[in-house]
Design goal:
The protein has 466 residues and is of the alpha+beta class. The strands form 5 sheets. An 8-stranded mixed sheet has the order 7-10-11-20-19-18-15-13, with helices on both faces. It is 23% helix and 25% strand. A hairpin with a 3-residue loop joins β2 and β3. It contains 10 helices and 20 strands. Bound molecules: aspartic acid. Aspartic acid binds next to β19 and β20.
Length: 466
């Protein structure tokens, strides 16, 4: 007998088939039992007649049904269901696996359920229609991007997870080295240095669906690990990066979420100074009708300040990261008036969210050295932290530029979700815990010994709400 998915039942009228899935609902009417069977493709009505030998069925049991697909009578057509014109008359029902009572209902939208509970049983939450739809949308977006960039001549390259620091402005996760006592790797905040080194390596057009890690304090919608569409191109400037990303985004939205409309194309372009003056923010929300769930107002904000004063230390920090090129016309102010130097950098803003930053990069070793110095770094520190970048730039580095749109955020906006956790399969809580597996967790003393680590007991912070 042919095994089919639920959605394939539409094309199998008159055939004897096997379908497998979960019992979404079960209605025992005495003479007859109706089961809505669910698999990854949808719901299908199964009719079990009372005179048939059938096991007891409960909600979320996993079952295998044999039977014949038949057309429903005119009166019984369910227009809300993709398989609403057909049903299966069961000839055999087998329980493959039973289900305990669910900790929460998954038949309805789970958005209102306590999130800690949803995350503890994420595998159940993922069975709900909205969550499954969000993961499918995520897949479609990423597939579109991969295909689009491949056709544009990009190649996807994986960069290391075990790294030396990348200065993107956030704290880094440390990974102790067992083989090199007292030394640590850090997890990448972004593949920034490696993508630039790939340009020095002659790759030309690189992208990566890149997992990135930032050990930040609980702040709204941040996640300790998130996904960026990291990209870099050689022999281009700002114009080419913006043009490529704009064209890709317009096509992606038309193809993957055709119900959406973009307020204005080409995307408006504002300088940082204009945005601050006109809207008082560098992430203006330019929607015409904020009540329209399908409106997407996308704009570019360009020419950010190169540096900013750190409010705590009073020192000068890179506003984006120190590999960003200063604007040529501001180069003479690099030492004398750094806070008035503008950068060749750009942000992509969508409905008031910063979707991406990017910049033209420095590719001359001397200029890179000057920028590190402007940041107050001594020669020895520059050498220790970034000597490898300066050295690489001495061997024929092409001019290059790139950016890194946040994939989670893009999908969040396209799915009209209120936060990025709704579009990630297994997100952490706001305070970076995984209620499902219990991470982070203590490890055995022997594992600490091997990693040459001694822990200092501290009071365990109270579990904070999500
Ligand atoms: N690496 C940067 C970031 O993560 C993006 C870029 O400059 O391409 O923000």
């Amino acid at each position: 007998m042919k095994a089919i998915t639920v959605i394939e039942s539409n094309k199998a009228v008159g055939q004897k088939v096997v379908v497998r899935g979960w019992v979404h609902t079960v209605r025992d009417m005495g003479k007859i039992t109706f089961v809505d069977l669910r698999d990854q493709t949808g719901l299908l009505q199964v009719v079990i007649s009372g005179d048939m030998e059938a096991p007891r069925l409960g909600v979320e049991y996993v079952v295998e049904i044999e039977g014949e697909v038949r057309k429903r009578g005119e009166r019984f057509i369910n227009h809300k269901l993709a398989t609403g014109e057909v049903e299966i008359g069961a000839t055999s029902v087998k329980v493959l696996s039973e289900s305990a009572e669910l900790p929460f209902e998954i038949k309805n939208d789970t958005i209102g359920i306590n999130e800690e509970l949803r995350l503890k049983h994420r595998y159940l939450d993922l069975r709900s229609e909205r969550m499954a739809k969000n993961l499918r949308l995520r897949h479609s977006v990423i597939k579109f991007i991969r295909d689009y960039l491949d056709a544009e001549g990009f190649i996807e390259v994986e960069t290391p997870m075990l790294n030396k620091g990348t200065p993107e402005g956030a704290r880094e996760f440390l990974v102790p080295s067992r083989l090199h006592a007292e030394e640590f790797y850090v997890l990448p905040q972004s593949p920034q240095q490696f993508k630039q080194l790939l340009m020095v390596g002659g790759i030309g057009k690189y992208f990566q669906i890149a997992r990135s890690f930032r050990d930040e304090d609980q702040r709204g919608d941040r996640q300790p690990e998130f996904t960026q569409l990291d990209m870099e191109m050689s022999f281009v400037g700002q114009e080419e990066v913006l043009a490529l990303n704009e064209a890709m985004l317009v096509e992606l939205i038309a193809k993957v979420t055709p119900e959406k409309h973009i307020t204005s194309t080409p995307f408006p372009r504002l300088t940082y100074a204009e945005a601050m003056e006109k809207y008082g923010t560098d992430k203006p929300d330019l929607r015409k009708d904020k009540a329209d769930p399908n409106e997407l107002a996308i704009c570019w904000v360009v020419d950010f300040p190169m540096f900013e004063k750190n409010k705590t230390t009073g020192k000068i920090d890179a506003a984006h990261h120190p590999f960003t090129a200063p604007k040529v016309e501001d180069l003479d102010k690099l030492e004398s008036d750094p806070l008035n130097v503008r950068a060749d950098s750009y942000d992509l803003v969508i409905n008031g969210f910063e979707l991406s930053s990017g910049s033209v990069r420095i590719h001359e070793p001397e200029l890179q050295q000057r920028v590190f110095k402007a940041l107050g770094m001594k020669d020895s520190e520059i050498e220790a932290k970034f000597g490898h970048m300066i050295e690489a730039f001495k061997f024929g580095a092409p001019p290059h530029a790139g950016m890194a749109p946040g994939i989670d955020r893009l999908i969040m906006v396209l799915a009209n979700e209120p936060n990025i956790r709704e579009v990630m399969a297994f997100p952490k809580t706001g305070d970076a815990r995984d209620p499902l597996t219990g991470a982070p967790a203590r490890v055995a003393d022997s594992a600490l010994d091997e990693a040459h680590i001694k822990t200092v007991p501290t009071k365990k912070p109270k579990v904070k709400p999500i």
